C-alpha cells in the first residue's frame, strides 16, 4: 500500500475485492489492520456501506437483483426491518466494508440506503449530517470527502464501482429524479416507511468515464492517478476531487442521463 502511494495522514475511500488480492493470512481483518497501520493515527479509512435492499419490494429487481410476486408485497412491506446504522449489514459491496463497519470505533452515516463508514481521525466529520433525502450529493459524505482532499483506492475492482462519480451527477442541471422508499426507525423500536425524492442514480457510464480519465492521465504523464498492485490485485489510486470534476465534464459533454 505504501509503495502504491498511500501514507500517514491520508483520507482514503476504498472500493475493494478481497478475492482479487489473493490469499491473505487473517483475511479482511488483516487488510483493515494494514490500512490503519499505513494511514496512522491522523489518517482515515472510509468505505461505502450501502443498503439498497432496504427498499420497496416492487423495486427489488433493481435493488436486490430478484423479483418477488406482487401478492407478497404487502406482507414484505410489513416485515422489512428498519435501517439501524449500528447493526444493519451493508449490501452488495463485499467483505471489507462489512469488516470496517463492525470494527470498534467505526462511525457510520445515517442515510438508510447510501451510508458510508469511517475509521480514524476524521471519521466523525465525514459521516455526520448525511441528509436522509440525499444519497450521494452535496449533503452526503462524498462532498465532505472532496472537501477533505480525500483519495480513492480501487483495489482489485474497476471504474464501474467508483461511487465518487455519483457526486458529479448532482452537479449537472436537469438530472432526472425519482421517488425512493425505505424503512427507518426512531431508536425506540418503532418503524415507518420513509419516502423521498432524489436524483436518479445511474452508474452505467462509469466504466467509460473512468477509462477517459485514465487516458487523460496517461497523456499528462500520470497526473494524480497511480496504478500498481497490492498483493495480486490491480489497483488505481487517485484524488477524489479531480475525478469528480472530470466526471461532471464528461457527463455534460455526453448528455448522459439528461432527458
From TrEMBL:
Keywords: Acyltransferase, Transferase. InterPro entries: Amioglycoside_AcTrfase, Antibiotic_NAT-like. Signal peptide: none annotated. It holds the Pfam family Antibiotic_NAT. It comes from the Bacteria. SUPFAM superfamilies: TTHA0583/YokD-like. Belongs to the antibiotic N-acetyltransferase family. This is AAC(3) family N-acetyltransferase.
